[in-house]
Amino acid sequence: MKQTDLWETPQDLFNKLDYEFHFCLDAAATGETKKCKKFLGPGSPIGEDAFKRLWSDFVKEGEAIWLNPPFSREGKCKEFLYKAIETGHFRTLVVLSRLDPSTKWFHDCLYYAYELRIFKHRIKFLMNGVVGASPNFNCCLWVFKPNAKVVTPIISFMD
């Protein structure tokens, strides 16, 4: 795992989203960076690799999954997300990702997404609980709800 993959979601951002979505699983974390009691990743008692497990095994009706994937494994993450989205193995999935409308990934997500939230600023991620630098790109949040009938995703901006 690359050192940059250990950047964690700022707690205030996660808390705001958790209040709205009620996350029960952090699908890509370590014991130090996890945002939920149940998590998948190094140090997890339920699974070391999120891309080898069905997330629905850990989610009850109405619960949501949080995913801030390691950006060095974006290709693997995208491949798994496509499968998860197509099979609907979750109720609600919220994914923090790079905002890049020039990519096929972006357009594929737009096709499947219930909602896209674009950050107005760059996120300052944490390292060992301390605010660090922002990446050299902007991020967005994808909200996937496989059972929702979506013709056009809701698009909004976040502070």
Strand order of the largest sheet: 2-1-3-4-8-5-9
The level-1 CATH class = Alpha Beta
Radius of gyration, CA atoms, in whole angstroms? 15 Å
**Order of helix and strand elements from N to C terminus:** HEEEHEHEEEEE
Mean pLDDT score: 83
Structural class: alpha/beta
How many strands in all?
Answer: 9
CATH T-level fold name: Rossmann fold
Biggest beta-sheet profile? 7 strands, mixed
- What's the number of structural domains? 1
- Low-pLDDT runs of 5+ residues are none
Q: Please estimate the helix content.
A: 10-25%
Number of helices: 3
Report the sheet-strand fraction. Answer: 15-25%
Our measurement of the CA-to-CA distance between the termini, rounded to an integer number of angstroms, reads 30 Å
CATH architecture: 3-Layer(aba) Sandwich
The general outline is globular
Walk me through the topology:
Elements (H helix, E strand, L loop, with lengths): L10 H11 L1 E4 L11 E2 L24 E4 L6 H14 L4 E7 L5 H9 L2 E5 L6 E2 L2 E2 L7 E6 L9 E5 L1
Parallel strand pairs: 1-2, 1-3, 3-4, 5-9
Antiparallel strand pairs: 4-8, 5-8, 6-7
What does this structure look like?
With 159 residues, the chain is of the alpha/beta class. The protein has one domain: Rossmann fold. 21% of the residues lie in helices and 23% in strands. It is globular. The N and C termini lie far apart (30 Å).
Quick overview:
The protein has a single domain, classed as Rossmann fold, CATH 3.40.50. The protein is 21% helix and 23% strand.
